[in-house]
Amino acid sequence: MISDPQLFLCLSDISGTMRGKAMPVREIDNGAEARVGWTPTNVQIGCFDTIAESPWGALGDLVLMGDLNSRARVDFADGGPIEDFALGDILHLDGRPWACCTRSILKAALTRLQHAADITLFGAFEHEFHLPDRTASKAESYGLGAFRTERVLCETMMAALAGAGLVPDTILKEYGPNQFEVTVKPTLGHVIADQAAQLREIARATGERVGQRVSFAPLIEAGGMGNGAHVHLSFRDGAGRPVTYDAAGLHGMSAPTGSFIAGVLYNLPAIVAFLAPSVVSYSRLVPHRWSAAFNNLGVQDREAAVRLCPISELGGEDPAPLFNFEVRACDATASPHLALAAIVHAGAWGIEEKLAPPMVTNEDLSQRSAADLAAQGLRRLPTSLGAALDELAAAEMVKAWFPGGFAEIYLAHKRHEISVLEGQDEAAICAAYQSAY
C-alpha cells in the first residue's frame, strides 16, 4: 500500500481533545517548519463536536506552531501505520501567543510561579481508565488474573509510552470493573501536561491496535466507579534540588509548599471548573467515593482534595526528593495544560500572599454542617458543572489570571456543553462521555 507518513500537529484544547492538522513528515525532514494554519472559532468545538457561540465567527487566522521536542512517535511493529504527533502552541501571525492557547496559558502560569518563589514544578498525572467492551469477572480488583487477561494491552501500552519518550512507572488493574491505572515518572514544567496529553492518546492508540476501546471518562455508567486524573506535584529550585519538604514544617511541608497548597484550596471552588469540566465529573466528586468533595488537605487521605503522599522509610532514603502532594479533584475531561495552569496560578497566588499552611483534616467532613466547615475555611465543592461555572464566573481574581477574554470563551464553551446534554438521563450522558473520552 502506498503511504506518505504524516506528522499530526495538535493541541489539547478547552475540551481536553487533541485537535490539529497533519503535514508530511518528509517536509519536516527536509527542514520545513512544523506549522499549520488555524482558525480562532475552532476553540469553541466541544467534546461532542458541536460549536459554542464564537466572537470570531468565520473571521481570523492563526498559526499552530509544532514543538518537535514534544513529538511522540510510536511504531507498534504490527504492520500498521506509525503513531506520530507533536504538540504545539497557537500563535498570532506575528508570533504572539494566542489568548486561548492552553499550552501558552500554562507556560505563563509557570513563569508566575518562578517569579513568586524561584521554583520549578516537578510532577506527573496519574490516570485511571476503563475498557468498556471488556467482560468483567468477579474478585479481580488489583488481581494478577485480571492483569494476565489484559497483559498484551498493558505491556504494549508501557512499551509504547517508552517508545514515545515518556518513562513508564506502573500499570495495574484498578478497583472498578474493567478499570485500570497507568502512571509515568515525573518531569518538569509544561512537559508535565504535554506527557499527560501524550499518555491519553498513546493509551487509546494502543487499545485500537489490540482490539480494546480505552476510555478516560470520569464515569462510565450511572452509579459506577469513576476515573480520576490525579496530579502529583513537587518543586525544584534553580539547581534542580527538591524544595517541597522541610522536616521542621507542618507535616513536612516547606514554606512555599504550604502557601501553594493553601492557595489551591482557597480557590478550588472556582478552579474546579477547569479541573473537572464535564457534567459527569460531579457525580464522581461526592463523599465516600475516594475522590474529592471538599476543599481540604489530608495526610494519606484519599478523600481529600489535596493529599500529602506517604514517604517510604525503607532503605533510609532521603525524604526530600520523594515528598509530593496530590491534587485529586481532577479528571481527564480537562485539558491537562489548562487544569495545571489553574492549579499553578492558585498556588502562586498563595505564595505571593504568604498564606499559612492549611490545617489537615482527618475525618468524614460530610458529617459536619456548612457553618461548622466555614468556621475552619472549608466548604463543599460545587455539586454540578453549572454550579462550578457560576463559581468561576463570580471569581474576578481567578478570571484575571488568564488572558483577556479567555474566561468568557471558556464559560460559553462549557455552558454550551451542558445545553447539548439537556433532557438526557444519566445513562445517556455517561454513554456520551464514554464515547468522547
Protein architecture, described:
The protein has 437 residues and is α+β, with helices and mostly antiparallel strands. Helix content is 34%, strand content 19%. It contains 13 helices and 13 strands. Strands 6, 7, 8, 9, 10, 11, 12 and 13 form an eight-stranded mixed sheet that branches. Strands 2-1-5-4-3 form a five-stranded mixed sheet, sandwiched between helices. Strand 7 (168-173) and strand 8 form a beta hairpin. The longest helix is centred in the middle third of the chain and has 21 residues, at 255-275. The mean pLDDT is 95.
Q: What series of H and E elements makes up the topology? A: EEHEEEHEHHEEEHEHHEEEHHHHHH
- Determine the structural class based on helices, strands and strand pairing: alpha+beta
Morphology: globular
The helicity comes to: 25-40%
Mean pLDDT: 95
Q: Approximately how much beta-strand content do the residues carry?
A: 15-25%
Query: Counting H and I runs of at least 4 residues, what is the number of helices?
Result: 13
Q: How many beta-strand segments?
A: 13
Main sheet specs:
8 strands, mixed
